[in-house]
Amino acid sequence: MVQSEKTAKKLETLIFEVVALQKDCVEAVCVHCKSPCCGRVGYLFGEKDILFLKLTGRKERWRKNGIRKKGCGFLGPLGCTLGPGLRPFICHHYICPDLETEMERSQSGLFSLLQEKFETIHMLRSQMWAEYLDDAL
User: Fold this and answer.
1) Over the stretch 11-61, which tens digit does the pLDDT of each residue have?
2) Is 120 helix (H, G, I), strand (E, B) or coil?
3) Tens digit of pLDDT for each residue in 79-133?
4) Total structural domains within the chain
C-alpha cells in the first residue's frame, strides 16, 4: 500500500468519527429543516474528494447522470442518497448556525471537538494529495 492510500485510510477513520459525533444533532435539526443546505448547492466534489474515493476503493458516484435540478443531485426525499463515506468533505464540514446551536445545547464542547477533527482532516487531505503526487512521479 502506497503512503497516500495509508493517509486516505486515516482520513476515512476520522470522517466516520465526525459522522458519529454529529449523528444525533443532524437527525434533530437537518431532517426537519425547511431549506436544507443541500437544496441550495451545486456540484460539491473537489479533486481531493475524488482522490479520497479512488484511494479507498469506492465506486465513482461523484458523477450524477440525469436531469439537473436545483441543489445537490444526491439529495433525495429522505435526505442524502450517498453513504457517509461517499460524500464530499464539505457535507461533513459545513455546520449551519442551527446545527451549531443544537450541538452546543446537546453536548457542551462537541462543536469545538468537531472543529479540531476538521482541522486534522484538512491537514490529512492536503498530505494525501501531496503523497499521491509524489507517488505518481
Assistant:
1) 999 999 999 999 999 999 988 888 888 888 877 888 999 999 999 998 776
2) helix
3) 888 888 899 999 999 999 999 999 999 988 999 999 999 999 999 999 999 999 9
4) 1
DSSP characters over 41-67: ------HHHHHHHHHTT----S---S-
| Structural domain harbouring 129 | 3-60+69-136
Q: Whole-angstrom Cα distance, residue 74 to residue 79?
A: 8
Query: Residues 118-121: contacts with CB within 8 Å, 24+ apart?
Result: 118/18, 118/92, 118/93, 120/14, 121/11, 121/14, 121/15, 121/18, 121/89, 121/92, 121/93
